[in-house]
Amino acid sequence: MKKSIAIDMDGVIADVDQHFLNLYHSEYGVLFTKDDIAGKTEETLFPEAGAARKFAFTPGFFLTAPVMEGAVEAVKKLMETYEVYIVSAAMEFPLSLTEKHEWLRLNFPFISWRNIVFCGDKSIINTDYMIDDHLKNLDNFKGKTLMFHSFHNVNYNHHQRVNNWDEVIKLLVEEA
């Protein structure tokens, strides 16, 4: 029986960090880089209070997020050895369910609808591995965790960090 992996969407296969930066630049005319926002939280990401949250509630936000570099190829590779589930705590954002489902259909058409889990709290997930960028999801997970690098988790090291999809493949294909 194959081991299983839960892979987060936002910040792991969907590059929402870059998406926030692009939208902020479009709306406010100020260009920030990922280095500029390192160590900030989503609440303190931009000088304008609530800007990131406003973007996340904007129609089309989740549908138009860019794919994380290397994610498509890596997920395909992982599916050769593991049972892969895409797991997103999507309930907070009303528009996200339809948009995330469509985004997956367009960008990851090889993932079955049976392997897509939208939930409110990831503590219900019981896979062997979880790849996520948020500590709130990783801290209570019972399996092996991989913390995908993001601006908001740069100051934390109590989960094994992966900086990109190449590192994920090196770790998980070697462990299989």
Describe the structure.
The chain is an alpha/beta fold and 176 residues long. The chain has two domains: 122 residues, HAD superfamily/HAD-like (Rossmann fold, 3-Layer(aba) Sandwich), CATH 3.40.50; 41 residues, no CATH class. Helices cover 31% and strands 16% of the residues. It is built from six helices and six strands. The protein has a six-stranded parallel beta sheet with strand order 3-2-1-4-5-6. β4, α5 and β5 form a beta-alpha-beta unit. α3 runs parallel beside α6. The longest helix is centred in the N-terminal third of the chain and has 13 residues. Belongs to the 5'(3')-deoxyribonucleotidase family. One of its GO terms (molecular function) is 5'-nucleotidase activity.
Short characterization:
The chain is of the alpha/beta class and 176 residues long.
Task: Record keyword descriptors for this entry.
2 domains, globular, 176 residues, 31% helix, HAD-like_sf, 6 helices, Rossmann fold, 5'(3')-deoxyribonucleotidase, HAD_sf, alpha/beta, six-stranded parallel beta sheet
